[in-house]
Each structure stands twice: as structure tokens, then as C-alpha cells.
Amino acid sequence: MKGEVAIRDLGIGDVDALVDLYQHLNAGDAPPSPEAVLAVFAHPGLRHFGVFDGEALIASCNLAVIPNLTRGGGSYGVIENVVTHADHRGRGHSQTVVRHAIEEAWKVACYKVVLTTGRKDPAVWAFYERCGFDAGDKRAFVIRR
Asked: Closest Cα to residue 131, out of 96, 85, 83?
């Protein structure tokens, strides 16, 4: 390990490291435009969290808090883009960042947190269950353009 492992909110100054880390999620993705970066980091209710080993960003996820009119007006959270650098996998960093995002959702009174994954690997599903998610609670449907 290079340095002390810490978790914090990511800001616009972390974009280059985050885009590089996303290559470990979706290799070959085109980088976002500067306009997209500004829009994402200005979006209310959207936060990005990062786990750092010293100065190196090694794991991340984001949390969108969605206002809602059901459940007494309780918001809900959506976690996406969970990724750990390939050189740092198997050490609990993704679990750290996911659990941090869940705790942040509870702090703003979300009544639930949802996470979807495109991975078909049962080990990945088991990982999310260890983080507290219930795969049998809801069914997700996706449509892509």
C-alpha cells in the first residue's frame, strides 16, 4: 500500500482521476466533454465518493438522491458506477465506498437505496448482498437508446 486509505467526496478537480478509474469499469469508454463534466458536478443531489490510497483514487461510486412524492415525500437514493482499480480489488475498497454512499443516503433521510448492475457474475451479486442489498426485493428493467 502506498499511503493511508481515506474516503471523501469527489469534486471537479478529481475528474481526470475518476475518468481514468472508469476505464476499469467500462474499458474503452470515451471521456466526457468538458460541458458534461460541469453539468454532472453542478447537479444537485448527485455526489461522487472516492477511496484513496495516498493520492491515488482506487475506488468510487456515485449516489443520486431523488426527490419523491410517495412514502411521505421521502427521497430515495440510487448508487451507480461502482468501480475499483484492478490492482486494488479484493481488499474491501468497493464495499467501503458503497457502505459510505448508503450512510450518506440515510443522513439525508432517503427511505431506500437502489443499486443496479449489468454484471452477470453471481460473485458480484453476492458482493452487493454483503453490502446489505436484497436482490429479491424489486426487479429492475432497463431500456437503452
From this structure: 96
